[in-house]
Amino acid sequence: MTNRKRIDVNPLNSIVPIIMLILFLVALYYLAKGVFFILSWVSPLLLLAAFFINRQVVIDYVKMLFNLLKTNPLMGVVGLLLSFFLFPVVAAFLFGKALLYRKLGQFSEEIQKRKEGQFVEYEEIQDEAEEISLDLPELQQKPRKKIKIEQSRNSSKKNDDNFSDYEELFD
């Protein structure tokens, strides 16, 4: 006779994970319901804030819906219905998009300022050094020694002679 392992299938072992999954989905439902309730009260303010932060975001969304109505009427109607019934989610999305575009604009301005330098307004202040006059004694120059031209023209001399000629310039 062959050795076969007997597999014990107990239906009670899978009940605990199924109950935990159901509890997780119920908790997720109530969480989503609470968030949707809060968004339903705040959504008009979010839409106005999105319009004031970056009005182009709201205008582009409305244009997109009307273009969708013109090109594909069925999808346009579906888009309008979803926008109506999910208005709190749409308002929160437009608000987030407006904030993101604003932050990206500030970031790109900062990069451009770093690249080109920042323009700073300034006032021209008169230099006080122009008004102050210094009474300095006259500069007394030392008499210069004359360098022999023949020595500099004679190329057969060693480098030491050339160096000594050079030193004579500073004496």
What are the defining features of this structure?
mainly alpha, 6 helices, elongated, 171 residues
Structure description:
With 171 residues, this protein is mainly alpha-helical. It has a domain at 42-112. It has 6 helices and no strands. The protein has helices at residues 15-53, 55-71, 73-85, 87-116, 149-153, 159-168. α1 packs across α4 (87-116) and α2 (55-71) packs across α3. The termini are far apart. The mean pLDDT is 81.
Produce the secondary structure layout.
Layout: H1 15-53, H2 55-71, H3 73-85, H4 87-116, H5 149-153, H6 159-168
Helix pairs in contact: 1-2, 1-4, 2-3, 3-4
Strand count, sense and barrel status of the largest sheet are:
none
Distance between the termini: 119 Å
C-alpha-based Rg, rounded: 43 Å
**Number of E strands:** 0
Per DSSP, the total helix count is 6
Q: What is the helical fraction, as a range of percent?
A: 55-70%
Along the chain, the helix and strand elements come as HHHHHH
Shape descriptor:
elongated
Structural class by secondary-structure content = mainly alpha
What integer is the average pLDDT?
81
Low-confidence stretches: none
Query: What's the oligomerization state?
Result: single chain
* Residue share in β-strands: under 5%
Question: What's this model, at a glance?
Answer:
The protein is mostly helical.
